[in-house]
Amino acid sequence: MQTAAHVLREADPLPQPYLLFLGDVVEPGYAKTAFGLRDWARERCVGEFACEGAKVSAGLPAMTPAQARMSGAKAMVIGVANPGGRIPASWVPQLVQALEAGLDLIGGMHARLSGIEPLRNAALVLGRRLIDVRDPPAAIAVASGRKRSGKRLLTVGTDCALGKKYTALTLARELRARGIDADFRASGQTGILIAGEGMPLDAVVVDFAAGAAETLSPDADPAHWDVIEGQGSLFHPAYAGVSMALLHGSQPDVVVVCHQPGRTHVLGYPGFAMPSLEDTIELTLRLGARTNPAIRCAGISLNTGELDADAAQRVIEDTGSRLGLPVADPIRGGDALSRLVDACLA
């Protein structure tokens, strides 16, 4: 059985269930925390709340904080992952409203809730908690590069916010369904909220980031699999450093490359075209071989959520034929997913 990875939660579990706060988001890709909790922890979500002018919904009942408290909510989670992890001043009145309604606040942003004076003062007066999950542990070691026991699968991507977390969660679930000892290892704030533990890799000082990835996936039984949530993209103009540290530190035996058909440019960076799957596979294997020479690509995970069933099937088949690899949409499942899992274990 695996040695426990670092647990990023307080002595008490996070206050649940949640009201999901969507801020003033107009780009669905930036609401991935809300979508992730909706899809993987629906029983912990009572509703959603947004600023006036927001264009994105998680499809949950719209509630004020007071209504959510009456429905049993214990905390409001900031369900947004925007560039830079900032909390705009325009959100503060809604966040204070949640505290006044009797809800704790849970944040996964780089900006600390306790660093915002109106929130800090309101929480103190009202006896509410401000909980930041994007807070790495102290004294992370520099990466050793030492080969660890056990098996590791890392999801990598052509961009941000296109399915690395969903793919990792699905593959971990499928492995366990086959009777294989497997753990999902969260490397970002949404995964940590879903799993209750993990390592917020993008909040770690860069010299220690690969070491943090080693900590996330420690020595294990030879038959154990850690399925590690990927971050960013090696091609991303801003976040490639996080992806590189995770690749080197996790030392994956297997990678699954994640992609969204039809996306033409890097999310939020219209001047940067999306890399090809071929280039992504080649670069990932070349760089990953530095810490695990036996690294291999098992297949491709496609996010076909914007396509109908027939179009999704065509792109899955065409991609598989072109690359000679198993290709699946993990949410659609089916035989394609079974073949992808087979390839991961081969």
TrEMBL record:
What highest taxon heads this organism's lineage?
A: Bacteria
Annotated protein name in UniProt:
DUF1611 domain-containing protein
Q: Which organism is it from?
A: Luteimonas aestuarii
Domain D-glutamate N-acetyltransferase-like N-terminal intervals: 50-136
Q: Where is the D-glutamate N-acetyltransferase-like C-terminal domain?
A: 142-334
- A Pfam match is DUF1611_N
Q: Which InterPro entries match?
A: DgcN-like, DgcN-like_C, DgcN-like_N, P-loop_NTPase
